[in-house]
From TrEMBL:
GO terms for molecular function: DNA binding; sigma factor activity. Interacts transiently with the RNA polymerase catalytic core formed by RpoA, RpoB, RpoC and RpoZ (2 alpha, 1 beta, 1 beta' and 1 omega subunit) to form the RNA polymerase holoenzyme that can initiate transcription. The lineage of its organism: Bacteria, Bacillati, Bacillota, Bacilli, Bacillales. Residues 173-196 are annotated as: Disordered. Pfam families: Sigma70_r2 (PF04542), Sigma70_r4_2 (PF08281). GO terms for biological process: DNA-templated transcription initiation. Residues 22-87 form the RNA polymerase sigma-70 region domain. This is RNA polymerase sigma-70 factor.
Length: 318
């Protein structure tokens, strides 16, 4: 008998086939939830694997999973919280600004089947990091994945009324954050201009950078813009945010002047927006994304921590 991943329950026979269908149907959903919860591509992929391994054990044991979608999200949420607890001490001692791992978002990306690409933006992900673990889960499930409150309540182990309160508290907290804050202490805004606007600005920014047109670069940035550089103590990077358009341009041009031999860059879709990926001998060197206010750059996010770029290894090869 064919086992389909529906909301009426899974048959207790054909566990292998049931697992494959669940994996095919819900892997993008689990990855989407985990990445937004953790801000890490590699940890999100681990959560996907661990979640489906657990589901496989349940199916092999004959467990009747009546609501697979909600059940998967519950398992994934718990595994995310376990990872967040385990990494909390490392986050507190992290060297310099902490930024999410960049996610290249082509059509084949695990998140490609889902909407709300704006919630993949670096600024948005940093806002989520300001919420408690439960608030983050509730907010993502409701705001991004469009779950009903009673479904979320079952996933996070709260009452529907409490879940509703948690969501509104989280939304209020995010709405009150400002893009100019310290990375890891309230960075970014939820609202973003259309991706087409960002793409146009980024392309013009790169053209001005390549041609050395400093005045053009300055005109494209807000005077109080901020650059966050995440080297994680592994490579040389600014350990504090760089404030002001002139200082940001000086920093970027200084970085490019010191790149090793074999450097090249590519414009790629990163976290739902056009960004810049730099390669050294076809291995990832840094990834830069932008947050705009209107048609000007308000924040620049540069990830150079090699541990956060490992999942991109080999992508520069043609």
């Amino acid at each position: 008998m064919k086992v389909a991943p529906n909301e009426e329950g899974l048959a207790q026979s054909g566990a292998a086939g049931a697992l494959q269908e669940l994996y095919d149907a819900y892997k993008p959903l689990v990855f989407s939830l985990a990445y937004r919860m953790l801000g890490s591509v590699m940890d999100a992929e681990d959560v996907v694997q661990e979640t489906f391994l657990y589901i496989n054990q349940q199916l092999q044991a004959g467990t009747d999973i009546r609501t697979p979608k909600a059940y998967l999200c519950k398992i994934a949420t718990n595994k995310c919280i376990d990872k967040l607890r385990a990494s909390s001490a490392k986050r507190e001692t992290y060297v310099g600004p902490w930024l999410p791992e960049p996610l290249l978002t082509e059509a084949s990306t695990p998140d490609g089947a889902l909407s709300h690409k704006e919630s993949l933006g670096t600024a948005y992900l940093l806002l989520l990091q300001q919420l408690s673990w439960v608030e983050r889960a509730v907010f993502v499930l409701r705001e991004v994945l469009q779950y009903e409150y009673d479904e979320i309540a079952d996933i996070v182990g709260k009452s529907p009324a409490n879940t509703r309160q948690i969501f509104h508290r989280a939304k209020k907290a995010i709405s009150g954050q400002d893009a100019g804050g310290e990375a890891g202490e309230g960075t970014g805004r939820q609202a973003s201009p259309p991706s087409s606007t960002t793409a146009q600005v980024v392309e013009q920014f790169v053209q001005a950078l390549v041609s050395g047109n400093v005045q053009r670069l300055l005109s494209m940035m807000k005077q109080d813009a901020v650059l966050y550089s995440d080297g994680g103590g592994k490579v040389q990077a600014a350990v504090r945010p760089i404030l002001g358009a002139e200082r940001i341009i000086a920093f970027i041009t200084g970085v490019l002047a010191k790149v090793p031999e074999g450097y090249r860059f590519s414009l790629e879709m990163v976290n739902g927006q056009l960004g810049i990926t730099g390669y050294i001998h076809e291995e990832p060197y840094h990834v830069t994304t932008f947050h705009l206010k209107g048609e000007q750059i308000e924040a620049v996010y540069l990830v150079a921590n090699p541990n956060k770029l490992r999942h991109l290894a080999g992508r520069g090869q043609t």
